[in-house]
Structure prediction request, 450 residues.
Amino acid sequence: MRVGIIGAGPSGLAQLRAFEAAQRAGVDIPEIICFEKQSNWGGMWNYTWRTGLDKYGEPVHGSMYRYLWSNGPKECLEFSDYSFDEHFGRPISSYPPREVLFDYIQGRIEKSNAREFIRFNTVARWVDFDEATQTFTVVLDDVANNKTYTETFDYLVVATGHFSVPNMPYFKGIETYEGTVRHAHDFRGAEPYVGRDLLIIGGSYSAEDIGVQCHKHGAKSVTISYRTAPMGFDWPEGMEEKPLVTHFEGHTAYFSDGTQRRFDDVIMCTGYQHNFPFLPHEFRLENKNCLYPDNLYKGVVFNEQPRLLFLGMQDQYYTFNMFDAQAWFARDVMMGKITLPNKAERDRDIATWLAKQQAIENVFDEVDFQTEYTRELVDSTDYPDFDLEKVGEMFKSWQRDKREDILRYRDKTYTSVMTGTKAAKHHTPWLEELDDSMARYLGQEKKQAS
Prediction:
């Protein structure tokens, strides 16, 4: 049996780790090849300064930016088989910056032989499925060597993420807007907005975080324009929320409440598209960002063709450990340890989860929903168990912390459910910390300099 994996971000790496865990337990695993379009693993956490196109003319995958710090407690994303204690050898704070989290992701996978399964700088161009042989043929481009070739697989795992293809809405007059316009996907740092009046369009996590980052680093003002409802945080002086923009004239944005204001720059924090240009239309997910995409059994198995599996396609509270739970489930499906029910039963199971999703009323319900979902996956495999319910309570506490103080919630500390270790307080309050490097975070600058 041959298994193809498209993507070597946290989800694709989780799939490799799941197979490795089976192999270490003495189980024969299939032949595996993972294809990654970037030159290194890590997906979104593999930061690049590039925007637009990479050096091979491919669309840049990453949306990561400088000064990004975790916007949720690290204790909520901790791997159950590789703790932060094991990686760093000492307690660290609950909200590390991106470089520290990337180092943690790498730490687990570097303990394995995963790299030998990955072909970097390789882009999936097209997938065909042969009904007679029940196999996938994948057309691939080795962009570093300008070589096109094909591989055939019995199962295909799509782990490409869904936060890399921007959704860019149109507003009347924006084509002649006299300031700069970019999507959050192309945001790389707050420096261009120092001393400037910034308009952010969007009302979710990226609008919240980029807005606060730009305020922290010296934007003159930050206005966040929402479509349906304000986030409603107790914003500091210089930050405010306004209803949706109706149109632009010159440097001026006009809002649906009849007000108007001049802005130097606009950042679109308007979300991302599920985009699978390498898949034929009958195999593409066509959902918007949600907690339970339709047509995925257990959020993983493509219902119309169960040899096709997707990882990490949900909107996410849980991240790394949920990807693990999905990957372990996908592995057991592919290796026959889990027998899938017939399509009618799968349809009913999907409908049950979609009905639960429809009944969600608030963010706490969302947390409970994803906790229950992840619990079901963990309980169905040999993935190392952990106290999901306690993690769910941490997510709720995190939501309350943000309501209490949107600028200082990252100074809070939590306790690991994996090790019982209480996080350390960072040496500098987040609002005063302008250096996000790992050396600064770990207090190693003098050591490195010497």
Summary: The CA atoms of residues 292 and 353 lie 7 Å apart. Confidence is low (pLDDT under 50) at residues 446-450. The domain at 2-164+272-398 is CATH 3.50.50.60 (FAD/NAD(P)-binding domain). The chain has ten helices and 18 strands.
